[in-house]
UniProtKB/TrEMBL annotation:
Native source organism of the sequence: Actinomadura rudentiformis
Domain Xylose isomerase-like TIM barrel span(s) in chain numbering: 42-260
The name this protein goes by in its record: Sugar phosphate isomerase/epimerase
Alphabetical list of InterPro entries matching this protein: IolE/XylAMocC-like, Xyl_isomerase-like_sf, Xyl_isomerase-like_TIM-brl
Keyword entries, A-Z: Isomerase
Listed Pfam families: AP_endonuc_2
Single GO MF annotation: isomerase activity
């Protein structure tokens, strides 16, 4: 049975990395969680049609799909990058019955020209929007933490993300907020307000102190220093009332039994995130 606070809780697949897509869906259903954040590689492993069937069989919906983008061509793993891969990501998102596809915009290209890299992101997004809109998929621009500017995204603030999205309709391009990436921003409150009804994705985790790793330093809500309740209140004040994904990259979490990880997340979510 779904508990009162879990109607908004979503478990991103990466949080329970040792599980397959099917195991993640089954696990969420078993714990009364109705949403899952999907990763394309994991979906591709079992096939998108089978993945959609598993979701339907267990009454679980996809809160977001990760990921497309890398418009600068700079991807640390060189996967899901390029026009053909981005279009395939959109097709898979639509076939899963989802409508939010996260974009990781891409890092600084080999020429080290940061302004040119940001221009490439603008151009790449403009080229992709019509294809996504025809298939009912909204593209979610996700600003990443500045320490990821070199490899993963030259878009590092909410203001930059909103500026990218503004030339398009809110039903075409929206904003994805991840607390790990934006909590530090001195203009966070203004950025959230400016994003407004463009916010179509919201992910939470905590910032551990000390940071064990520049990518794998995410903690379970309540383990770190981020004011998750305050950020959630600000996001909700814009009118966003959709799923809240818990997305954690952390070797210790990954080595723990996934059912135990979900149990702890559920225990801390109501007070630590919703407040």
């Amino acid at each position: 049975m779904t508990e009162p606070f879990t109607d908004r809780l979503s478990i991103n697949q990466i949080t329970v990395k040792s599980w397959t897509f099917e195991e993640t869906v089954r696990g969420c259903a078993r714990h009364g969680i109705g949403h899952v954040g999907a990763w394309l590689d994991s979906v591709a492993e079992i096939g998108v049609d089978k993945a959609a069937g598993v979701l339907a069989d267990h009454g679980v919906s996809v809160s977001s799909v990760c990921r497309a983008g890398f418009f600068t061509g700079n991807s640390p793993d060189r996967s899901w990058a390029g026009r053909a891969d981005n279009e395939r990501a959109i097709d898979m998102t639509a076939r899963l019955g989802a409508d939010v596809l996260y974009l990781v915009c891409g890092g600084v290209a080999d020429d080290r020209d940061l302004p040119a890299a940001r221009a490439a992101v603008r151009d790449g997004l403009a080229e992709l929007v019509p294809y996504a809109a025809e298939r009912g998929v909204r593209l979610a621009v996700e600003p990443l933490h500045p320490m990821m500017c070199a490899e993963r995204s030259v878009i590092v603030t909410l203001d930059q993300a909103v500026e990218l999205a503004e030339p398009f309709g809110p039903d075409e391009v929206g904003i994805a907020i991840d607390t790990y990436n934006v909590w530090w921003d001195p203009r966070l409150a203004e950025g959230i307000e400016r994003a407004g009804d463009r916010i179509i994705g919201y992910q939470v985790c905590d910032w551990l102190v000390p940071q064990p790793h520049p990518v794998f330093g995410r903690g379970v809500p309540g383990e770190g220093v981020i004011d998750l309740r305050g950020i959630t209140r600000a996001v909700d004040a814009t009118g966003y009332d959709g799923p809240i994904e818990v997305e954690i990259f952390n070797e210790k979490v990954w080595s723990s039994p996934p059912d135990e990880v979900i149990r702890v997340i559920k225990e801390r979510f109501a007070a630590g995130v919703l407040g």
